[in-house]
Specification:
Elements: H1 11-31, H2 35-40, H3 42-67, H4 79-95, H5 99-114, H6 124-134, H7 137-151
Helix pairs in contact: 1-3, 3-5, 4-5, 4-6, 5-6
C-alpha cells in the first residue's frame, strides 16, 4: 500500500515522503538498467528496498505519535530533531542496519521527540543518537538485557 503525503503535512513528514519517493525512483532506475548492471547492483537494490521499508515504518510511527499529540508540531524545526533524524537517515543510507539496530534507533528517536525525558534544548539526545548508531546489534542486546536485569 503506497502512502501518500498527508494533507496535513509537517517538515518531517515531507522529508520522509521525499526520501521514500527518491528511493523508489532510484530503484526503478536500476531496474531499467542494462541486465549486466542489474546483477552488479542486486545487493545494493536489496539494501535500498530494506532501507525503504525501515523509512516507511519510521514515517508511520512519527505521524502516529504526532497525530496523538505526543510529539509537538514545532519539534520538527528544532536542531535536536534535525540532528537526530540525520543520524537515522545516515544509518539507513550508509550502515545497512538490521531490524534490531533500526528498531533501537527508531524508539530512541521517538522517545527524544516526545520530550518526556529531556527538553529540546539539551545536547544529550543528539549524543545518544550518535552513540546508538555506532552500536552493533549484539551490543544493543547486551545493553537492553543489562537494563532489564537492573530494573528487576
Amino acid at each position: 500500500m503506497e502512502k501518500d503525503l498527508p494533507a496535513k503535512k509537517n517538515e518531517i513528514s515531507e522529508v520522509f515522503w521525499k526520501t521514500y519517493q527518491a528511493l523508489t525512483e532510484g530503484m526503478t532506475g536500476v531496474l531499467a538498467s542494462d541486465r549486466k548492471e542489474v546483477f552488479l547492483t542486486i545487493g545494493y537494490l536489496f539494501q535500498r528496498m530494506r532501507g525503504g521499508n525501515f523509512l516507511k515504518d519510521l514515517w508511520e510511527t512519527w505521524d502516529h505519535f504526532r497525530e496523538k499529540g505526543k510529539i509537538k508540531e514545532d519539534y520538527a524545526t528544532t536542531e535536536q530533531c534535525q540532528a537526530s533524524l540525520q543520524e537515522i537517515l545516515d544509518c539507513l543510507d550508509r550502515d545497512s542496519p538490521d531490524e534490531i539496530r533500526f528498531s533501537f534507533l527508531k524508539k530512541l528517536f521517538i522517545t527524544i521527540a516526545s520530550e518526556k525525558l529531556s527538553n529540546r534544548d539539551s545536547f544529550l539526545p543528539q549524543q545518544y543518537m550518535s552513540i546508538a548508531r555506532s552500536l552493533t546489534s549484539g551490543e544493543i542486546i547486551v545493553l537492553l538485557s543489562t537494563y532489564r536485569a537492573a530494573r528487576t
